[in-house]
Design brief:
Blueprint lengths: L8 E6 L3 H14 L5 E2 L8 E6 L4 H20 L4 E5 H7 L1 H6 L5 E3 L7 H9 L4 E3 L22 E5 L1 E2 L10 H4 L4 E2 L2 H13 L4 E5 L16 H8 L7 E5 L8 H9 L6 E3 L7 H6 L6 H14 L4 E8 L6 H14 L3 E6 L17 H24 L5 E9 L6 E6 L4 E5 L8 E9 L3 E6 L1
Bound molecules: iron/sulfur cluster.
The site of iron/sulfur cluster has 10 residues, from helix 6.
């Protein structure tokens, strides 16, 4: 028979991106001083929090199916407190409480610091909503060494929100205006992570290269990178995501001069057609994008470049689509994340005519994936017989006494080796190339 859960225990189910994963960790740290401990499952929890994503319709739909499952559970355990946070919560607010009478509280993307009070009110029986976005600063508690901070790599949010208003994107509406954390706070958090054994950090933000513009005194992303490069024990720094229009010469030079900066950039292209880029309000042309890529390759010839593509944007003709294919073939990305366009509430693109049939969107998506897979394997084959430095992160999913890690250029490498190499950077000779990974042997 199940024993009843401890009186204050919280289980968080996270949907969507790495920033949401990071926020779920923050929620636990914010609630901990108020007596809440983490619960491993819904059954062990007195409070359930769904940390949601609305960047794509599919992610939002996942929340609604999860709520259906929780409804059944709440019938058996009506005392469980259910909260919904994150981007869908910010977008829907009170509508969620009306539509789902078993939700006890709703909190937005900038309400995390106020969560203890919100939860207290919910526990006292008050169904409440807090989606206030105008709070100047948020709370980023330090993460002491714990199972959550164990491992080799960690994400660290350095900014959130976005001022760009790309016409298809909901982020500015649900994450608010751009806001950057102080460099000293970021540095302290990373030093603390390094003390817990972390060797590599990925700096997160919706548009990291715009970091620092809201700070007084103003600072820049290259300055932050330079500062973090000095942290003893930290081996690698990655960041995501960058906007092509803000990829400055200074930032490109960092790939040449900053020793710990990994040889990889994720630079979302979205479309290869200038006509569609304009409708997307992306603020660059294909010509300027390609120029940035050339400069970047010149600064770091070994670096990998990955990108995002949206197919089936309203009005995307065969000609526009073929232009995208041609840019992909010319650029030879190391990997691509391809999405088909879906309307997001309140965005400018959702009001555009010329919506593309679902079938066409899927055909375009599948064609690009096929083309990219051929390019990825070709790029990876160039690495066979080379010796690369691999930071090992975890026992390989393949079993077989194998361990897995990544190169500075973010290529996953599997090879046979002892688990005590996890956390170490070791030379590996590459023997085989696959589409999304490499196989090698320890030197
Ligand atoms: S830059 Fe990124 S986060 Fe900002 S609006 Fe455009 S797609 Fe959305």
């Amino acid at each position: 028979m199940n024993s009843s859960p401890p009186s204050l225990s919280v289980h968080i189910k996270t949907f969507g991106c790495q920033m949401n994963e990071y926020d779920s960790g923050r929620i636990l740290k914010i609630l901990e001083p108020h007596g809440y401990c983490p619960a491993l499952s819904y059954d062990d929890a007195s409070v359930i929090i769904l940390n949601t994503c609305s960047v794509r319709k599919k992610a939002e739909d996942k929340l609604y199916s999860e709520l259906g499952r929780i409804k059944k559970m709440k019938k058996k355990r009506p005392d469980v407190i259910l909260g919904v946070g994150g981007c869908v919560a910010q977008q829907e607010g009170t509508k969620l409480l009306k539509r789902f009478p078993y939700i006890n509280f709703v909190f937005g993307t900038r309400s995390l610091a106020r969560l203890p009070g919100i939860l207290k009110r919910a526990e006292a029986g008050e169904r409440n909503v807090d989606t206030e976005m105008n709070m100047p600063e948020d709370m980023y508690p330090l993460r002491p060494c714990s199972p959550q901070t164990s491992g080799v790599t960690a994400f660290v949010t350095i900014m959130q929100g976005c001022n760009n208003y790309c016409s298809y994107c909901i982020v500015p509406y649900v994450r608010g205006r751009e806001w950057s954390r102080r460099p000293s706070e970021i540095k302290e958090e990373i030093k603390n992570l390094v003390d817990c054994g972390i060797r590599e950090v990925t700096l997160l933000g919706q548009n990291v290269n715009s970091y620092g513009k809201t700070l007084m005194p103003m600072t820049t992303f290259p300055e932050l990178l330079q500062d973090l490069n000095g942290i003893r024990g930290l081996e690698r720094i990655r960041f995501t995501t960058s906007h092509p229009k803000d990829l400055s010469d200074e930032l490109i030079t960092c790939f040449k001069n900053i020793e710990k900066l990994a040889s990889h950039i994720h630079l979302p292209l979205q479309s290869g057609s200038n006509r569609i880029l304009k409708k997307m309000n992306r603020g660059y042309t294909i010509e300027t994008y390609m120029k940035r890529i050339d400069l970047f390759r010149h600064a770091d010839p070994e670096a990998a470049i990955t990108s995002d593509i949206i197919v089936g944007f309203p009005g995307e003709s065969e000609k526009d689509f073929n232009e995208t294919v041609s840019v992909i073939e010319k650029t030879c990305f190391d990997d691509l994340f391809v999405f088909h366009y879906t309307d997001r509430p309140d965005t400018a693109a959702s009001k555009l005519s010329g919506k593309i049939p679902y079938k066409t969107k899927l055909e375009r998506l599948s064609l690009i994936n096929k083309i990219q897979n051929a390019i990825s394997i070709k790029n990876n084959q160039k690495l066979v017989k080379k010796t690369l430095s691999v930071l090992f992160e975890y026992p390989s999913k393949k079993g077989n006494n194998s361990i897995a890690g990544r190169t500075s250029s973010n290529k996953v490498v599997n090879c046979k080796g002892p688990v005590d190499l996890i956390g170490k950077t070791v030379p590996v000779k590459i023997e085989k190339a696959n589409v999304h990974s490499l196989n090698g042997v320890l030197i």
